[in-house]
Write a structure and sequence with these properties.
Number of helices: 15
Strand order of the largest sheet: 1-4
CATH topology: ABC transporter involved in vitamin B12 uptake, BtuC
Largest sheet: 2 strands, antiparallel
Helix content: over 70%
Distance between the termini: 34 Å
Structural class: mainly alpha
Number of strands: 4
CATH architecture: Orthogonal Bundle
Amino acid sequence: MANATLAAGDREAWSARLKDLGFWAEWAALVGLVVLVIVFQALNPTFLSAGNIASMLVAAAILIILAVGQTFVIATAGIDLSIASTMTLGAVAFGQAYAAGWGLPLSCLLGIVASALVGVANGVIIARGKITDFIVTLGTLSAASGLALILADGKPVTIIDPVLLGLSTGGLGIFGWSFVIAVVVALVAHVMLFHTRFGTHLLATGGAPESATAMGISTERIKIAVYTISGTLAGLGAILLVARIGAAEPAANTSFLLNSVAAVVLGGVSLFGGRGTIIGPFIGAMLLVALVNGLTLLGVSQFYQPLAVGIVVVLAALLTRFQR
């Protein structure tokens, strides 16, 4: 009798959770990804083929890294609109150094440092200058894009290097090296966010900045740090982007900006700060890549793909209203 009562109580508890919109807000990205996989596999059996899965994971790697960087910023109630342009500047700096004969290691380092400096500039101006993040990162978006075009003279730099080629084509089974790097970045970010004093201070800064300051937390340093992290990860994404396409393109791809924010929203990170997760944006990035890939396999015009992504993001944003 007692067991039956407990079972009935468990069923009632699960029933109540399934009716709670907050539950769906928490698991929106995972549920959406599972639904997409089932639907696309039913419509096109090649969707879950080993080759297509490997392709999706490689395509998701850069977006995952950018989404992780964006997560750190958004968790402090900010936003980095310059992340795609920062990545482009890093790619151009990398390409110019490589073309000048600096060698691969130094060229990669320069690309990451160039992107990190944009992040530092964002953080300092926002934290010390007391200017809203939207305006500052909108300005650096344009500045980084313009600087990339000036450095490259508007021309892409083709880079053919065996190490970069191996980075884009090699891997462990279906897991390409770029995806492995993205997983490592996500794991390190998770530890930083949830198992260090820095992560605690970061979430406190986003959730209640006045209280955080009263507790002795330097919110200015936290903000500088998160934008620096975002810029640095954009630089890492630049290296993976060059490895993937074989060239340093000076034209910024704004879809990376939109999709990085979309992945964070889908992952359940609060746009008002104080709440963060790494696995959520990770799954959110996978969902967006799976959506575009599935629509491509079905022969849906590329003109409709941004519409589909936009609808998914808006629905996810509506669900965040019911987050606990």
